[in-house]
Predict the structure.
Amino acid sequence: MNLRTIPIRQCGNRPSLFMGGDRELVMFLGLLSAILVFAAQDWLAALTGIVMWFLSLKGLRLMAKSDPYMRAVYLRHRTYQRYYPARSTPFRQNKRGYE
């Protein structure tokens, strides 16, 4: 009796990228740049929005090239505590001082 093998297709296992960067960050960056360009209606704000778009897009592409899941790793890292005290069991009552 042979084991059944199932191929894992690459298309179902790819990171969700848009324009070379993380999908959510790139779309949020586009929204911020568009708001800056169209809502301010000033030449300086339009220039700032366009420069911000291209520089940030380059940074997001470099970030995705380094690790496509870097945003998810960072968000998970932020949920961890700064210090986890050593405990033998989760039900042990730790007391102050040496007893």
Q: What stands out?
A: The two ends are 61 Å apart (CA to CA).
